[in-house]
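Handout, section B. The chain below has 97 residues.
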Amino acid sequence: MIKGINEKEECIIQGILKDYPYDFFYYGSRVKGNYKKLSDLDILLKNETEVPYSVIEDIELKFNESKIPYIVNISQYANMDENFYNLIKNDLVKIEN
């Protein structure tokens, strides 16, 4: 578990992501520990090819309808800027689902 989420929130996150055959990673302020109460949660979907937008939209909808008290942002590795990825790659924490 990372610093910026509690056990209940992690169960919700894992429950949402378990139905998708991709690797997901936490990154950002909630991993680093410099988050604020309402900081968003950044999740990287790591897949070599781009995942259809409808899948991302479905995941985001499930997060919006969940009891997680902050915004969850989903980024895709396949269309991420290489420089940005290099900035975050050491902070990635795999989400077990």
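Note. Strands lie at 23-27, 41-46, 72-76, 93-94. Compare this with the example in section A.
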